[in-house]
Amino acid sequence: MTMEYFWETTGSIKKGLGFSHFSSLHLAWIAFFLVSCIILSLLYRKCGETGRKRFRFTVAGLILLDEAAKWVMLLATGLWTKNYFPLQLCTINIFIIAWHTIKPSKLIDNFLYTICVPAAIMALAFPSWTKLPMANFMHIHSFTIHILLALYPIMLTVGGDIKPRAKYILKCLIMLICMAIPVYIFNEFMGTNYMFLAKADKGNPLYWFEQNWGNHLLGFPVLAAAIFLVMYGPLELILKLKKKKALTATLDARTEEKEKQVVRESL
After folding, report:
1. How far is CA 186 from each of CA 70, 219, 220, rounded to the nearest angstrom?
2. N or C: which end of the chain has fewer CB within 10 A?
3. 77-97, pLDDT tens digit by residue?
4. How many CA atoms lie within 13 A of 44 on its CB side?
5. Is residue 95 within 8 Å of residue 54, measured between CB atoms?
């Protein structure tokens, strides 16, 4: 494993050194994400309030340190470009998570579950840094930062601290659109592609919509609908079953009480 290209970026490295989507290296990272996510989420679930607070601050702190290390590396090597402003959705989520550790709310809870989780998982499943080999700082950073970004809300959801509700989907989408509008304008002026609003590269699921429907932006509502169905369908079904069960138990209790009252009155 050569360290010759350790400090290179996707914009500076020569071709032919990276990896392919769903290659053994890529699958190994995905397996690492799944195993670590399951283990840490279960550990978080077992912790008391003090332990959970430490867990949250530790993961959020690692996210910030990971991102800070990237900036230090890019500035120190002179490889920073206009493509590294903190305007990607996952980069924005870094600061939302940091804010959440200090001042959580139901809206941010649901935004992290609804937007942050699928965004991080999609990045892990379809990485845009395939030009980079394993022995590369940005390769490692790109995987670890997205693993941590997905881990934080998943961990809190498994622990019951985040309780996703479908009624917040619209508010989360409005919040996302409010972020996307200035980013879209920035892209137009700077020639960048933050949030993949300007184009979709090969390997990105949005690329299929570009090729078949003529515009990759049409893929956003389609993919969002499919993701929300998977993320909220089972949850809403479970909630309805619980409500139905609770209602049935209440009605049964009332019926039983009425029967007892009839018996007492007949004596």
Report:
1. 22, 21, 19
2. C
3. 999 999 999 999 999 999 999
4. 26
5. no
Using H for helix, E for strand and C for coil, what is the string for 162-177? CCCCHHHHHHHHHHHH
Domain contains 209: no
The percent of residues in the chain predicted with pLDDT above 90, rounded, is: 84
Q: Quote the distance between the C-alpha of residue 3 and its chain's center.
A: 31
Number of domain units in the chain? 1
CA-based end-to-end distance of the chain: 89
Contacts of 167 (CB under 8 A, 6+ apart): none
Q: How far apart are CA 6 and CA 134, in angstroms?
A: 9
pLDDT (tens digit, 9 = 90+) per residue, 105-147? 999 999 999 999 999 999 999 999 999 999 999 999 999 999 9
**Domain contains 29:** yes
Does residue 244 fall inside a structural domain? no
CB 30 within 8 A of CB 125: yes
Residue 36 is assigned to a structural domain of this protein: yes
135 lies in which domain range?
A: 24-196
CA distance 57 to 13: 35
